[in-house]
Design brief:
mainly alpha, 46% helix, elongated
Amino acid sequence: MDPESELQKALKQAETWRNRAAMAWQQNNRDLTQQALTRMWQYQVAAARLEGNDPPDGPPEPEDIFRGWDPPPGGDRPWRPYDPSRVPRNPLPSSGAGEIALPRPKSNEED
């Protein structure tokens, strides 16, 4: 494998682990966020060595990366990006589910 493709692979892996850290942060899991940021840092070190640059000092703290992010919606319940949207248990009749068109029964006279 040539150094250029190794560099691209390391950068892609670093971005993947940053995204995983973001998902863990959104689910309020600080330990998992820190583990993902450590893996991201390892790939950043590998990429820096391939480029001939000085590697970063150490894995970043989650608060440094995700400072300013909004808290997860829904209060205490962690936000999951693949959850369907929340729907009320008892929708209002005006929401379109009030009437259902039923087929007309066949009468014996029409035969």
